[in-house]
Amino acid sequence: MPPTFRVPHTLVLLFAMMVLALVATWVLPQGSFQTQPDARGNALVVPGTYTQAEERVQLGPVQLFTAVPRALAKAADIIFFVLLVGGAIAVLRASGMIDAVLGEVLKRIGHSQGGLIVGGMILFAAVSGAIGVAEEYIPFAALLVSLCIAMRMDAITAMGIMVGGYGIGYGVAALNPFTLVVAQTVAGLEPVSGAGYRWALFLPFVAIGVHHVWSYARRVQADPACSLVADIEIPHRAPAEAPPLAGRLLLVFLLSVATLVLMSWGIYARGWYLVELGALFVGLGLAAGLMGGLGVDGTAKRFAEGAAELAGTALLIGFARAIALILEDGQVLHTIVNALAAPLSAVGAELAVVGMLLIQTVLNLFIPSGSGQAFVTMPIMAPLSDLLGISRQTAVLAFQMGDGFSNMIVPTNIVLMSILGIAGIPYDRWFRFIWPLLLKLTVAGALALVAAVMFGYS
Length: 458
Fold this sequence. Notes:
Layout: H1 10-27, E1 31-32, E2 35-37, E3 43-45, E4 51-52, H2 62-74, H3 76-95, H4 97-109, H5 113-131, H6 141-150, H7 155-171, H8 180-186, H9 195-222, H10 248-270, H11 274-291, H12 295-309, H13 311-329, H14 333-366, H15 370-388, H16 392-406, H17 414-423, H18 427-455
Helix pairs in contact: 1-13, 2-13, 3-11, 3-12, 3-13, 4-5, 4-10, 5-7, 5-9, 6-7, 7-9, 7-16, 7-17, 7-18, 9-18, 10-11, 11-12, 13-15, 14-15, 14-16, 14-18, 15-16, 16-18
């Protein structure tokens, strides 16, 4: 058999992009824009001020390697924040609270088709949009498949509920620390700022997902032969029983909700930033572990394991930041921004922001890590938005939508492929189901971004 093409590891792709960035510093004109600070102190580029450098900066191959530790140091605040959040979520997962909440909700809504589809998609979207949960859904794939098959639906419907909700939650997330907060930090914005508009988008986008899944489910109920997996024997495993949401787990759940409320208050009322937010998640992890019965040693072990699971993400952030660092050192970052701005300026801000959305969607195929993608694209998209008259908040929203919605379809997304594997769904069958939903969400996202430009979303 001829060898099949495999997408290289994300670190390989990022290093290749670093090499291209270095080559760009050798062949592109070097120059920069004048900048001026905004109310938050961000350096905004001034349109029409790009000038070429009088003397070229020469970077050598050694910069490929020195840029990585330098980039890790420059991104240390966000890297440590991601590790701390990962540790806290691992403690919550080990306590059984996340399983208990998901299991309890699925039990309560699993008696009716409408309740399961509507409630399930809202649940998965809300949890992903709030704390960036993704891998934690994998164990629930078997439960959801069992519930759907029991109601004369199929495995595609089950995964539409889970993966559709997860992708929409990431796309319009109001609080997600792994994508939204990272992108806003890179763009020089306050964490979770502009949440009002994203909250307003939440239900309409979930409704699009619900309509797509429900329409398909009704066709399958009316005629099982319409199922995209009608000819495939779906493995019907007995799902693991989720613990009841009571006693200690209920207290841990209430503590988690209180932490999110405190985080929102601290950001808006006290101006908390990554240091304070990181401290909040350390406190949540410690309190949840002790309250959840893990003990001191168990809490420490789970917290360390959770942080270790995100060590790869930390490296992706460093390598991604190194790309921008090389472009900055070689004085070609603004050259690229200036080159992109010229054609986009000709079509106007409304169409330009749609172009941003499409760029982010394509990039997610090659950089499935949301945090890593933010560090690759936002150093370019933020100054580009300044030139085009688009707010940086809108540029971040374009990033979110491009990354989040395409998570439902890109085969480089490990979470997606794991869930499909457990559900026994071949990727080609899933693709036939999900691409129309991705198209609907992308069109709706484009309209939402155009509206954001028109009313000055910030």
